Amino acid sequence: MSPSRNRNVLVAVLAVMVVVLALGAVAGIRLIAGPPGGGFARALGGASTGPSGDSVPAAPGDPGGGDLYFPGYGNGGYDVERYDLKLRYDPATDRLSGVARVTAKATQALSRFNFDFGRLSISSLKVDNADATSEHDNKTELTVIPAAPLVAGRTFTVDMAYTGTPIGEAFNHTATGAIVLGEPESATEWYPSNDHPKDKAAYEIEITVPDGLTAVSNGVPGGSTLGGDGWRTWKWSQSAPMASYLAMMAIGKFRIFEGTSDGLRYYTAVDEAQPAGGVAEQCVRRSPEVAAFLATQFGPYPFDITGGIVVSLGTLGFALENQTRPIYPPSFFTAGEPAGTSIVAHELAHQWFGDSVSVGQWRDIWLNEGFATYAQWLWEEKDDGITAQAQFDRTYATPETDEIWRPAPGDPGADDVFAESVYVRGAMSVHALRMTIGDDVFFKLLKEWTSTKKGSTGLITEFQALAEKLSGKELDTLFQQWLYTQTKPPYPGR
């Protein structure tokens, strides 16, 4: 090729590049040089390509997750893969500071997207290491505006630093530290999240507190290190997908019990203010035994570790099934055994029903609470000799005017997701199903449900479909009577 011809080719190539760059600017696409042999440009942001090859412009992600009861919970446009949280809390000043890295995949071309995040001040915000701007309603909604739009299907990171005094019902201050827990929401008070069970993710959590205090969270402990400033950092890892409300943090002075029982690792913490060797400690230390029994009913335990935490917080009126590490107030153990381990059975049953298999909609809360309450009946039959059938018959004798019968547990309404009927009539509904399809199919159903849905979410309609498939029976009438009517259902088989 002659030199003059080479110059002509070069001019032609440069002209093409100018045209392409101009078109890219019009389309809102930023172009950079690619690797050798890989083409000279690639799209970083702006529009994505639709199924027909047409350009799909970037748009804001939905600020709500589409829940029928709580439409503002969660967000659209992305799926979180992992949370990396580095937290520092000073009980003396009630000051929390955090650095959160959220790794997510865009499910659409995004011009902006939302996190559920509360009233803490943001000092730094980056998307893919580039400064981003935000809009914050100072309640629970944070809008993130990246420097360049995100392409659908692309994995991206958000790094956020924040600080402040936590405000809300989930962040509970104690004599020596703090306990963070709550349902159906709690994450908003201490880290940015996509706060709905439909978007589960892995977690790495580091909590730095004054030396002398222990910081407990979900999953497997990674030990602690003491810094030169007199603060100690505790590390926790939860590799299995976890719903955001199940993430927890407990800071205080605890007696720790850890080890392995029948191949299952456990980590249990009891507030030092509780009597050593007392009923609460005795009951929660039976967690591995209870989990092993429930595995015979529901299938293999779904996580790497089990355990629990007994806290000293007089205002806490509930226990909660935080993944791998349920939290219990001491008041739940005042009745002693066997009532104490019955509560442990309830919260550990949630590790299958609620944590591993989470609700796809909060309306389907029966899949959590009905089965966890029924697990208490199964445990009490083993531990105390009271059969589940006897529990059902005794409870069924309750007058129709009693509050255990309404609202209907299959659709209790947003204000009543934790109504007594969801628990008690919910457990009775589980047993009514067992009476209808027989023990063999029933326990096969429970194990297949927890196996096929492990790490994901489920709906009542999906559970009914599986029950009909395995039993070969039409169950519309049973489910309608027991889950969706506001009156006392007829006794099964009558």
From TrEMBL:
<dbReference type="GO" id="GO:0006508">
    <property type="term" value="P:proteolysis"/>
</dbReference>
<keyword id="KW-0645">Protease</keyword>
<feature type="domain" description="Aminopeptidase N-like N-terminal">
    <location>
        <begin position="81"/>
        <end position="246"/>
    </location>
</feature>
<dbReference type="Pfam" id="PF01433">
    <property type="entry name" value="Peptidase_M1"/>
</dbReference>
<comment type="similarity">
    <text>Belongs to the peptidase M1 family.</text>
</comment>
<dbReference type="GO" id="GO:0008237">
    <property type="term" value="F:metallopeptidase activity"/>
</dbReference>
<keyword id="KW-0862">Zinc</keyword>
<protein>
    <recommendedName>
        <fullName>Aminopeptidase N</fullName>
        <ecNumber>3.4.11.2</ecNumber>
    </recommendedName>
</protein>
<dbReference type="InterPro" id="IPR014782">
    <property type="entry name" value="Peptidase_M1_dom"/>
</dbReference>
<dbReference type="InterPro" id="IPR027268">
    <property type="entry name" value="Peptidase_M4/M1_CTD_sf"/>
</dbReference>
<dbReference type="Pfam" id="PF17900">
    <property type="entry name" value="Peptidase_M1_N"/>
</dbReference>
<keyword id="KW-0378">Hydrolase</keyword>
<dbReference type="GO" id="GO:0016285">
    <property type="term" value="F:alanyl aminopeptidase activity"/>
</dbReference>
<keyword id="KW-0482">Metalloprotease</keyword>
<dbReference type="GO" id="GO:0008270">
    <property type="term" value="F:zinc ion binding"/>
</dbReference>
<dbReference type="InterPro" id="IPR001930">
    <property type="entry name" value="Peptidase_M1"/>
</dbReference>
<dbReference type="InterPro" id="IPR050344">
    <property type="entry name" value="Peptidase_M1_aminopeptidases"/>
</dbReference>
<keyword id="KW-0479">Metal-binding</keyword>
<feature type="domain" description="Peptidase M1 membrane alanine aminopeptidase">
    <location>
        <begin position="341"/>
        <end position="482"/>
    </location>
</feature>
<dbReference type="InterPro" id="IPR045357">
    <property type="entry name" value="Aminopeptidase_N-like_N"/>
</dbReference>
<dbReference type="InterPro" id="IPR042097">
    <property type="entry name" value="Aminopeptidase_N-like_N_sf"/>
</dbReference>
